[in-house]
Write a structure and sequence with these properties.
This protein is of the alpha/beta class. The chain folds into two domains: 158 residues, 3-Layer(aba) Sandwich (Rossmann fold), CATH 3.40.50; 199 residues, Dihydrodipicolinate Reductase, domain 2 (2-Layer Sandwich). The protein has 13 helices and 16 strands. It has a seven-stranded parallel beta sheet with strand order 3-2-1-4-5-6-15, with helices on both faces. A five-stranded mixed beta sheet has the order 12-7-13-14-16. It has a two-stranded antiparallel ribbon with strand order 8-9. Helix 1 crosses helix 11 and helix 6 packs across helix 13. The longest helix is centred in the last third of the chain and has 18 residues. It is globular and about 55 Å long.
Length: 373
């Protein structure tokens, strides 16, 4: 393949959006996945794709086959999850082929594994290993970095809200992560496990009177990204969908699944959870509507004598993810990155630069920042 960017899982909801924005950025790409027919059917729904320069590649999910696929490429955008199950082969293939790696998930166990197993190796090759480039993780990190521009801030209290429906892949990842993984927050520079009995929290959502329901949501990626940041000592993240019935149902679903997988092997658990996820969500959600599908990222930053609050209002969170992935791929293909090895989108490209891209496509508007010190 001669294209600089490979989108793996291009037939999925998010993968198609990555392809859509690569087309808008005039970036040639390979749309890859395990079924050529599904790939073609999915890409046929992407607006304007007939004007894009792309190829379709059917590939088996193995290190050897993915390494061959990536030969000659510069960046892999991976949307195939759950990532602790399917991600290792893709990361190893990127390392073998000398290709930058990005994906769309904020699974904490996955980020920790990437950092420990591959961070130093990617750095040695001058490659970026950046999981979690997505609205649910990156926009909150952007807001956190705006907050940290105020001197004296060392504690981040973060909330991520969006209105919409999780995709098929997101549902599978959420279920697998909730059952198979631990969730952490950062407290005084140490990762601390969220209590297993942590219930739904009611949070004030900026810009609305109704309280939002939120969960630790696997802890998210921010405690991992800020763990080694000398400016930060503590990070807590809660998130939720602005849909009370859906949020109230999540803990019940997870509680019902725990005894179903008890005593099973890891492979058996994964198979059971994959099947159960299909029963929860088996159809693609509709294309996002900016009037309906809003996103709100709120970060309170505190220090001994400093306070700062940043809110980023946006729309179409999956479109934000598609654009963030495509733009990151464009930058990496051009050799632009501030970070090699294990690193976040903000560490690699800059929070103001990332925000500017989202704003230029009409997906966010200027952050609302309040500072008192």
């Amino acid at each position: 393949m001669s294209k600089p960017v490979v989108v793996y899982g291009a037939s999925g909801y998010t993968g198609r959006l990555v392809c859509e924005y690569l087309r808008e950025l005039n970036m040639p790409f390979v749309a890859a996945g395990r079924d050529k027919g599904r790939l073609q059917a999915g890409l046929d729904t992407v607006p304007g794709l007939e004007t894009a320069e792309y190829e379709i590649a059917e590939v088996a999910h193995s290190v050897d086959e993915l390494t061959k696929l990536l030969s000659g490429a510069k960046v892999l955008c991976n949307t195939v999850g759950p990532f602790m199950e399917y991600g290792p082969a893709a990361v190893e293939a990127c390392y073998n082929a000398g290709v930058h790696y990005t994906d769309t998930t904020g699974e904490q166990d996955w980020l920790i594994w990437c950092k420990q197993e591959w961070g130093a190796k990617f750095a040695e090759k001058g490659l970026l290993l950046s999981p979690g480039i997505a609205q649910m993780y990156t926009v909150g990190e952007i807001a956190a970095n705006y907050v940290l521009e105020t001197p004296g801030i060392d504690n981040l209290d973060m909330a991520v809200f969006w209105k919409g429906t999780p995709t098929v892949a997101s549902t599978a990842t959420i279920v697998a992560n909730a059952i198979l993984s631990k969730a952490y927050f950062l407290e005084e520079n140490k990762l601390v496990e969220w209590p297993m009995d942590t219930g739904i929290a009611e949070l004030v959502v900026p810009g609305q009177h109704e309280l939002g329901l939120a969960l630790p949501w696997g802890g998210t990626s921010s405690p991992i990204w800020f763990q080694d940041d000398p400016r930060v000592s503590s990070v807590k993240v809660l998130g939720g969908v602005i849909n009370r019935p859906l949020m109230l149902g999540v803990p019940q679903i997870i509680a019902a699944l725990i005894p179903v997988v008890e005593g099973k092997s890891l492979e058996e658990k994964r198979a059971i959870l994959a099947e159960q996820s299909k029963g929860i969500r088996s159809e693609y959600p509709p294309r996002e509507n900016p009037r309906v599908n809003i996103s709100i990222d709120s970060v309170h930053g505190t220090g001994p004598l400093s306070r700062s609050h940043c809110v980023i209002y946006g729309n179409c969170n999956y479109k934000q993810t598609g654009l963030l992935q495509a733009w990151a791929a464009q930058q990496l293909a051009a050799g632009v990155t501030r970070k090699t090895g294990f690193g976040s989108a903000c560490q690699a490209f800059g929070h103001r630069e990332l925000f500017g891209v989202l704003k230029s496509f009409g997906l966010v508007f200027d952050p609302v920042i309040t500072v008192s010190n």
